Amino acid sequence: MEKINETMSVYQILSKYPFLLKIFKQHGMEKFEKKDVLEQLGPLLKLKTALSVVSVNKDSFIELLNQAIADNEARGDFTLADSPERQKELTLLALLPCGMKMPFNRALNDFSTEYTKRTGNVLHSLVEGNVNHEISYYAYMDAVTSIEEMPDIVISSDINSFYHKSFRDNFLNSDNFVSLSPSPMNSDFEAIDFADPRGQFTMISGNLLVLVTINELMEGHPKPESWEDILKEEFKNKVAMRGQNGFFCNGVLLPFYQMYGTEGIKKLASSVYMGLHPSQMVKMVDSKKDDVPPMYIMPYFFAMKIQDKSRVSITVPKEGAILSPVQMLVKKEATERVKEITDFLCGKKFGEIAAKAYFPTTNPEVKNKMDDLGSLYWLGWDFLLNNDIGALKKEIAEVFNKQFMTTGGVV
């Protein structure tokens, strides 16, 4: 990027970086908002002169402008849904669970600022919610065949296209990535063999799915003790899970298929009344209405957002809290180039931020908030490597949606 300096004209600066007008206005130079003033006076007025007129410290103001430019370049000027092919312009792409996105963004912004000051380089990154791309971006990734089309670092959530056969054949089997997972991992992950045995995925964290029941709406039924319990006939149309517009969460569907087969998927579809975003589930529970589903499969992060927890039971069924993975792919050829960035992403400081938000970290130095959660249910690498995951997801979705519509599920 071209650094702003005191000899540049106001017109030169604002023509190239119009988003800086906000900072000029904040410091008493709102007159440049008018096009005629900017065009007539701006070319003649050096920045140092404009600042002296309004008695603004020159060095501090210039530093503020340059930081704003760096931040803008780091964020990128495109959305992944509109321009997925532009991901190759990024160093880091992160598609995260909703509850993780905000704390991640704050931590990354702080790191990026220090990184730019220390190295002079801009960290080109884009952070978006994973739920927005389960149909758009991941469908695009199914057709990508060149490693050059990908960023150096990709963080993603759930069982997505990176587990599909096409990606495995094009990239994973060619050893394009390197795992930076800690060894040993945090003890909370010891029993489930979470580390990728091929050394491709860096497993960072997990989105834990639990069962929330509204006690007063259970109509005398005992609280489910296993995931299988919610498949019972008496719970037809009694469950909400994450879904929208005919798409339902693979982080739920794949484990239920693994545990209970195709018949289990049909029974789950019969039990599900509607698909919602987890934030909508929380609002529904907190509404205290009696015409809402009594049971919710939701992330632990959102379960902890429920205001009146005395009305609900937050249950980890005996099979365990379902672990929907948060994983990272780091290009092997970029390992040294991005080491400072990946050290941050895998480090204790970020691990503590994730754990505080109820996303357990694999970092062994961090204490996760899992005292009340018990065991974890993880699909396992044998299942992921020995199935055509993309084809299986389509098959499961067809079975689920057909039964969901047949049994009166609400779209």
From TrEMBL:
UniProt cross-references to Pfam families, sorted A to Z: DUF1858, SBP_bac_6
UniProt KW Repressor keyword: no
Keyword entries, A-Z: Signal
Positions of the DUF1858 domain: 4-62
InterPro entries per record: DUF1858, ScdA-like_N_sf
Residues passing through the membrane, by range: none
Entries under SUPFAM superfamilies matching the protein: Periplasmic binding protein-like II, SP0561-like
Superkingdom of origin: Archaea
UniProt keyword Transport, yes or no: no
The name this protein goes by in its record: ABC transporter substrate-binding protein
